[in-house]
């Protein structure tokens, strides 16, 4: 049996550079199985594989002092991306490895002004992974078997060479520019398109050898979608966890919120948790109780 052909396009622009709009554009151009994080939030097997890929790619960051797993081979990457025509979005965290695995794929880069990009990342990815609802969800994930949150945190920490969110913030600017410099150095000019979404269909279609479609170039509001998905997943898996462990789920979630608030905000967080989690009729404890019916 022949191995999968592998992706035709590696869209190696980092997250929050219009990747959802670009993914839609590739689909309009006729590409199949365009890989984007927003599309596979509930595909848990993908998250299992992505976590293994992160552990193999960034062992010195994620598991220091431990024997690292073997680096992923073309066969390993095929198990995740082999049937995709295009890889976008979170695939960029493995850019160097994907360039090695798929040396014939065309590469598209979209680069934003760093300051605007970083504000966008903090409002979306950082919020979805390190905010209060994300912390609550991190206590629920082990109960439900979902790995998405932990996996994306691993990928981001590994890519930014960081042990925690504070170091990630410190390293963000350097790693951002390093990523784009590496892509320009490693990809031959004939296989590389540096693109701006404002350029429209022309340069993209010319580079890919496709006819320009008679529709407007897509514009997707990723910020709105990410926040919507983050909250929807919190409520969904809260309900699942409650069905699994019943009334004890409330105690677990309340404890998680209280611990997070206290750790992040000290005595102010402790005061907040005492007032709004435990005592107030409209607080988190009573809210969860009404939602899950225990």
UniProtKB/TrEMBL annotation:
DNA repair as UniProt keyword: no
Pfam families, alphabetized: Sulfotransfer_4 (PF17784)
Keywords associated with the record: Hydrolase, Membrane, Transmembrane, Transmembrane helix
Molecular functions per Gene Ontology: hydrolase activity
InterPro entries listed in its UniProt record: P-loop_NTPase, Sulfotransfer_4
Coiled-coil ranges from the UniProt annotation: none
Transmembrane feature ranges: 234-261
Gene3D superfamilies tied to this protein: P-loop containing nucleotide triphosphate hydrolases
The name this protein goes by in its record: p-loop containing nucleoside triphosphate hydrolase
Source organism of the structure: Trichoderma arundinaceum
């Amino acid at each position: 049996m022949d191995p999968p052909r592998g992706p035709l396009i590696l869209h190696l622009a980092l997250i929050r550079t219009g990747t959802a709009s670009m993914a839609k554009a590739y689909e309009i151009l006729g590409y199949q199985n365009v890989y984007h994080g927003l599309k596979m939030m509930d595909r848990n097997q993908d998250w299992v594989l992505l976590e293994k890929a992160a552990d193999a790619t960034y062992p010195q960051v994620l598991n220091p002092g431990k024997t690292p797993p073997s680096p992923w081979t073309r066969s390993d990457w095929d198990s995740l991306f082999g049937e995709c025509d295009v890889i976008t979005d979170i695939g960029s965290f493995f850019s160097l490895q994907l360039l090695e695995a798929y040396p014939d794929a065309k590469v598209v880069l979209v680069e934003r002004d760093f300051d605007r990009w970083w504000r966008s990342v903090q409002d979306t990815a950082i919020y979805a992974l390190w905010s209060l609802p994300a912390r609550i969800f991190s206590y629920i994930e082990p109960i439900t078997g979902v790995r998405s949150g932990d996996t994306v945190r691993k990928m981001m920490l590994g890519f930014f060479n960081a042990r925690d969110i504070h170091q990630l913030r410190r390293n963000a600017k350097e790693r951002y520019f390093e990523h784009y410099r590496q892509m320009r150095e490693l990809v031959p000019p004939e296989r590389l398109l540096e693109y701006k979404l404002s350029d429209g269909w022309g340069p993209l279609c010319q580079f890919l050898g496709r006819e320009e479609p008679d529709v407007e170039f897509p514009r997707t509001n990723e910020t709105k979608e990410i926040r919507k998905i983050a909250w929807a997943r919190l409520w969904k898996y809260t309900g699942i966890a409650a069905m699994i462990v019943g009334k004890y789920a409330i105690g677990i979630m309340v404890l998680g919120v209280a611990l997070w608030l206290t750790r992040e905000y000290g005595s102010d967080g402790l005061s907040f948790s005492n007032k709004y989690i435990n005592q107030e009729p409209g607080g988190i404890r009573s809210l969860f109780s009404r939602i899950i019916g225990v």
